[in-house]
Amino acid sequence: MPVIDRILVACLPWLAAWILVSGVDDLFLDMVCFSAWLRRLRRRPSFAPSRESKAEKHTAIMIPLWHEQGVIGKMLEHNLGAIEYRNYAVFVGAYPNDAPTVAAVRQASLRFPRVHLALCPHDGPTSKADCLNWIYQRMLTYERERGVRFEAIVVHDAEDLIHPEELRRISQALDDCGMVQIPVLPLPTPFRRFTHGVYCDEFAEYQTKDVPARLLLGGFLPSNGVGTGYARWALEAAAIEKQGRIFDPGCLTEDYEIGLRLEESGCRQVFIPIQFVAGQPVATREFFPQRLRAALKQRTRWVLGISLQAWERHGWSGGWRRLYWFWRDRKGLAGNPASAFANLTLLYGLATWLWSRATHSQWGIGGLAQVRWTAPLLYATLFLQVHRTAVRCGCVARIYGWRFAAGVPLRMFWANWINFFATAAALVWYTSARLLGRPLVWLKTEHDYPTSAGLNAHKQPLGEVLIRAGELTEECLRWALASKQPHERLGEYLVAAGPLTEDALYCGLSVQQSVPFEPLDGARIRTGVARSLPGPVARRCRVVPFRVEAGKLYVAGPEYPSDATLEHLRGFTRLKIEFHYITPRNYQRLTADLLG
Predict the structure, then answer these.
(1) DSSP per residue over 110-130, as a string?
(2) Is 278:461 a contact under the CB 8 Å cutoff?
(3) What string of H, E and C letters represents the secondary structure of 349-382?
(4) Confidence (pLDDT) at 408
(5) What is the secondary structure of 52-84 as a DSSP string?
(6) 124/128 Cα distance (integer angstroms)
(7) Closest CA to 257 of 297, 307, 215, 300
(8) pTM to 2 decimals?
(9) pLDDT-based confidence at 452, cuts 50/70/90?
């Protein structure tokens, strides 16, 4: 028997034993969630959000940044237009030595009065926790200046798509608890993007099964880092405990740490389960890393913070519930290498079995099945692996569809390798930092934000915007939706039918899209500015240049340009293009006067 076969025969029983223990652990959570699902069939859900009018808690959204100049502007523009909530302000943290990000936030604050820059007093990056603490201090200054008090604090990142109903649901849930978590789900990507697909699979299962099971079994709820709402009193209690610092600056995974600390203080924690509105889950959506290197960097930080740093800080103290969840959170230190070894064993075993069949020779690993107790162990682990794969497929199919879920088995294989290398990197990083006395610093992940087309599904419906603005009644909206043809756009139909003016429609579009709307007078637009773009190009793209200011070319039109159109326009100017809405009638007058 070859040496490698002997090594595998010796190691396989131990590998199978580990898979058995870990698989039974996962099966236990499946049974907990399944029994809870059966109970819910007989009674109302524990959290049933209401659309009835209630007093909105004064809410602060905190967004920490480091080198996010490429996405923060689009993030704020989209979310401020999508959120169906009025009583909130946004505090965005940045560092003095990150000038492009500071400039992007200042520019956004000029456009949106809700946005406020929180400038850290020192250079970065330090840690996300440190940045959040300084954002909190900026919020306190705002309160003193305005004579207001925020009752709820919600944390988000620069790549997040905030669901329109999120703040309302968090506000209602905080009536009865100190911390509430909205589901966090990756945005769908094409099947071929395997690395991002791993995030889709894991978060679908984690948010569907693991998080609800934690609370059902009395465990603490780690924050997901985004989409987390805190009652003001809960954070003030955490600040007192840590001498005014809510989040621990030395912690790489402050979201995990704050959930543990709040549970220790007796704070009730709530997770709002995944629910669907108009076919979309009510959740914070975002693009996770789509390239392998970025994914390894992010997962290395997760392993460093959740498994290694939390172990160093908290050990294995606490009752059996906490110890169980510590085990769940840290078992990847052994499980990730074991999974990679299982991948290698599977590939080697399959290859040698095919070779033995082709050459009619003895399969070296086959002798293992002759050991009396080994065969049942291997069959048990096979069953557990098939069961786990089926459960993950079901969770993924519920959110992304069965076609995407069909790739789960292949992506699980790929995920094992990603997690193995991230665990190895975390162990090396942590060991070297401790031996050399170096601090563990914020491992920044590069972020992408969806295109304009990808954001359309997350905008507030135009009809609701017009009703809130007092430009339309609910009866008129129902009449228009019932009487217009399927191909007709609601706004154009309302203008043509008479209940709505063009100006009112474009004021509504401005709110919905977070795009400025202003009537323009051709006599006040300089001829040289109007010709900043070639006339045929401007007419084809249906825009009129009307202002050049601070390195920007302002253009206006009745239709928001597609990403392809904007990219085409950038080929004719070095200036950054800023779009404003004007009505079709205004556009026709400007075209005739300025473009000829």
Answers:
(1) HH-TTEEEEE-SS-S---HHH
(2) no
(3) HHHHHHHHHHHCCCCHHHHHHHCCCHHHHHHHHH
(4) 96
(5) S--PPP-EEEEEE-SS-TTTHHHHHHHHHHH--
(6) 10
(7) 307
(8) 0.76
(9) low
Contact 211, 274 (CB under 8 A): no
Q: Which H helix or E strand runs over 555?
A: strand 552-557
The first and second tokens of residue 304, run together, are: 């460093």
Q: Please name the helix (run of DSSP H) or strand (run of DSSP E) that holds residue 391, with its range, or none.
A: helix 374-400
Region of 243 (left: φ > 0; alpha: ψ -120 to 50; beta: rest) is: left
Per the listing, tokens 């050459």 go with 359
Residues 6 or more apart whose CB falls under 8 angstroms from that of 282 comprise 163, 165, 166, 169, 182, 183, 272, 274, 275, 276
Indicate the SS3 state at residue 210.
helix
CA 340-345-351 angle, 5° bins: 130
Separation between Cα atoms, residue 133 and residue 399, nearest integer Å: 35
Give the Cα separation of 556 and 79 in Å (integer): 22
Cis preceding-peptide flag for 125 (omega within 30 of 0): yes
By the 10 Å C-beta count (0-12 exposed, 13-18 middle, 19+ buried), 38 is classed as: exposed
Cα distance between residue 446 and residue 457, in whole Å: 24
- The DSSP 8-state label assigned to residue 158 in this structure reads T
The Cα–Cα gap between 51 and 439 comes to 47
Instruction: Say if residue 445's pLDDT is above 70.
Output: no
Angle at 174 between CA 169 and CA 176, to 5 degrees: 120
Reduced to 3 states (helix: H, G, I; strand: E, B; else coil), residue 481 is: helix
> Residue 61's closest CA among 192, 159, 152, 191?
152
Q: Which tokens hold the place of 256?
A: 């995990």
